[in-house]
Structure formats: C-alpha cells, structure tokens
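Lay summary. Proteins are chains of building blocks that fold into shapes, and those shapes determine what they do. In this project we predict the shape from the chain. Here is one chain we studied, written as its sequence of building blocks.
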Amino acid sequence: MRRLSEALEQLVPQQRKAGGLLRALTVMLRGAHHKPTHHRKGAAPAFYKHLTTLKVLGKVERLRGCFHPIRKVFGFLSNVLQADQDGGRLLAASAMPPELPSTSLSHLNAAGEVHMVEVGERPATRREARAQGLIVMRPEVLALVLEGRAPKGDVLAVARVAAIQAAKRTWELIPLCHPIALSGVEVAIEPSADGSGLRLEASARTTGSTGVEMEALTAVQVGLLTLYDMLKSADPAMTISGVRLLSKSGGRHGDWQCDD
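And here is the predicted shape, written in a compact code that computers can read:
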C-alpha cells in the first residue's frame, strides 16, 4: 500500500481537482488491505465494493475533465493487485515504474480520447496492401464450388464482387477510417494448399496520404462472409480463419511483410 500511496501522491500535482478522489482511493485500499477475510468465496469483498464505487465516481470525474490520472491508477491496480481465492489477501505483483508510458495508438489523443487522425499534411505516396483469409468446408461442398454446381450459382464471382465492393466502402464500416480513392482492387480465390477449403487474397492500391491495409482486410472478410452465405445451405459448419495482413508498402513506416 505504501508504493500505491507514493504513486498517487506523484499523480496529484498533474491535476489538482482529482486530489480528493485519489486520496479517498488510498484510504479505501488501505482499509481493504488490513481488513481480515476468513471466507473462501468472494475474496476481498470490501476492496471490490470500494473499487466499484470509485469506477462510478471516475465516470463523473471524467466529465469534469480530470479523469486522466485516475485512469492511470486503475491501470496500475489491474497489474499489481490480485485477490487470493483462499485467503482474500491482496498481493503486490510488481513495482510501479517511475513514469507511466504514454500511448502510441494514433487514434487516441493525449487525454486518451478517440479521434480521427489528421493526414492532410502527409505527402501523397503510392500505397499497396495485401491480405488473405481462409474458409474451411467439407470436401463435397468444395467440389460443388470448383465444379460450378453450387445451388446459388457462380459462388466465386459473387464473392469477388462483394470483396471489391467492401474495399470501396471500408470507411463506412470502420468508424475512424478515411475515405480513400482506390486506384485498384484485386481479388483471387483458390483452393487452400491442404485442400480443406478456399483461400481468398485481396490487394488494394492507392496514391494518397494514408494506407489501405483496412481496405484489403475488409475485402477479405466480406468476401469470405459472402462465400459462407452462398454455401451455408450445404455446410452450415464452415469456419472462417486466418484473416491477416500479408504485406504493405508506401507511407511513413515503409514496407512491411509478414514473416511466414
């Protein structure tokens, strides 16, 4: 508890308005730490009761603009405290680092709020991304597709069109994606290497200020879902798996390729 108290005191100067709530947290946790608990079920009930109360108060403090230091404290608690199921004791797992690392996620601002990344000042470069995914099905269903005997017609053609359409509309499906003028989308569907189903690969290209990884991945997902829709009457147990980015090029971070 002493480490936690010291950590809280270091956070108070960052925003004075949160001081009272942080001191209350220290007092509550100290009380929960010293309060004996003899029953096996519901370990450390007093601690979790206080923690739930503070979470509610934290939501109120967030509206007042001083939730940031409290959010750090809860992140710390989730890493360094755990309830012993047998004795209800609070165990310290590790020491708090001197400085909490700042987030590196581009869709979060300094206050931890979600925002759309500004890309207007980035130079326009040629960008390309490739992604793939698999759909596993029974051998007889795969034979229907490859032989063109599926009940709903040309399954592969419909899935290709769906994947291309999805790539063009990615910004409408993923909240923080930018509308992108795609210069090209290619979709290839073929039997998987082990013959257990179909492999769909999509590539997207543009010349612009942001990448097209999400467009390629969305094309793969929707293309696979379309295959499922076209074939579900023959095999409702089909599974979609292995959706991932294969490579990307262009942009500030340069080229990247999946190791395997």
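What the prediction tells us: Helices lie at 2-11, 19-34, 45-63, 68-80, 139-146, 155-168, 170-173, 213-231.
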